[in-house]
Amino acid sequence: MKGKPKVVSIVGARPQFIKLAPLVGELRRRFDHTLIHTGQHYDENMSDVFFRQLRIPRADINLHIGGGAHGAMTGRMLATIEKNLSDLDPAFVLVFGDTNTTMAGALAATKMAIPVGHIEAGMRSFVKYMPEEINRRVTDHVSDLLFCPTAVAMNHLKAENVPGRVIRSGDLMYELLHHSRATIKANRRLLKRLKLTAGEYVLITLHRAANVDCEENLSQAVSLLEAMPLPTLFPIHPRTRKRLRQFKLWSRLQKAANVITCDPLGYLDTLSAACHAHMVMTDSGGLQKEALFLGTPVLTLREETEWVETLRRGNRLVGLDIDRILRLLRSRLKARPAPYRVGGRKPSQIIGNEITRFLKER
Ligand code: UD1
């Protein structure tokens, strides 16, 4: 009797663990599934805590490739993934989102003629040199199955005439949130520890290269933090921490009266902090949506967003415009989440079905 088809999922960075979590059970049930972790994110609070909290089984293979310049990191991943795929000989490879891990996984597989599925396909910021935009475009154009979370993403792929099959799958991040909502709401341990009152503080996160790798922009972000009229919780991403030190902004930040800094938080604490906040300010793609889903308005600290649907649902693009941000902070923005299911079916089910169908047709 023929066994289950071999499917390899490749993850490496924080947002990918979140997208994998609601899907991994489905993948293990249907396929002979192997999980490769590239090691792009490697700190306990950037990786292990997500596996533990989201009950993702340990990666079967960890490549330990984190840090370094984009080209060097991607190159090392490409070579090492190729070697592993050659040993595993899978029928299908699944990649997630828009990181260097995503593009390296997709390229390695497609060059070995292994079909690729891209989760969260079709997202576009139309900012050509944004690292994530490069990763997305390349990945979408070599993938065989393109799983789009939104109708807008579907339209982008149709306009670009990608060769793969474009599928509206809905949003796995929402699927996970939907199941964890009660736990997220009930969790107040961080608020207690930091003596924050629900509805009376702001959660802010910053890690995009455009904001933190440019000294002028990061200094402007610190000026924003100095001007915050409410207690402001700021979990600091490793990239941001490095740059704050490099640009000698660290001590200025520590003196900002209303700012509480901490290390990056796990899934549960981040989302509980977002859920109970008066407002979330972020340059993260995922947190924009997650905050709205939890009923918290969002200011996106960028000039553009891939998640354009959120702009009608309580998200505002504000860049680092301090006056505008302070004005909006006082206003009463309302948050409404976008629907995440398509035709009443869960994204994880749709993705599992489509991969099965694709493999049967081959
Ligand atoms: C990456 C993704 C971005 C995603 C983000 C989520 C790319 C191009 N970018 O950005 O799309 O939104 O992850 O967090 O892939 N570092 C640590 N410890 C860690 C992880 C990183 O110290 O656990 C350091 C790295 O060594 C590096 C810096 O932080 O110096 C940035 O890490 P990197 O993986 O290059 O990109 P991110 O900024 O995390």
Salient structural properties:
362 residues; alpha/beta; 7-stranded parallel beta sheet; 6-stranded parallel beta sheet; 17 helices; 48% helix; 15% strand; binds uridine-diphosphate-N-acetylglucosamine
Characterization of the model:
It is a single chain. The protein is an alpha/beta fold and 362 residues long. 48% of the residues lie in helices and 15% in strands. The chain has 17 helices and 13 strands. It has helices at residues 14-20, 24-30, 44-53, 70-88, 100-111, 131-142, 151-160, 172-186, 189-194, 209-212, 215-227, 238-246, 250-255, 267-276, 285-293, 322-330, 347-361; strands at residues 6-11, 32-37, 61-62, 92-96, 116-119, 145-148, 165-168, 202-205, 232-235, 259-262, 279-282, 298-300, 315-317. A 7-stranded parallel beta sheet has the order 3-2-1-4-5-6-7, with helices on both faces. The protein has a 6-stranded parallel beta sheet with strand order 10-9-8-11-12-13, sandwiched between helices. Helix 4 crosses helix 5. The longest helix is centred in the N-terminal third of the chain and has 19 residues, at 70-88. The chain is globular, with a radius of gyration of 20 Å. It starts with 5 loop residues before the first strand and ends with a helix. The mean pLDDT is 96. Bound molecules: uridine-diphosphate-N-acetylglucosamine. Residues 13-15, 40-43, 46, 66-67, 98-100, 131-132, 207, 237-239, 242 line the site of uridine-diphosphate-N-acetylglucosamine.
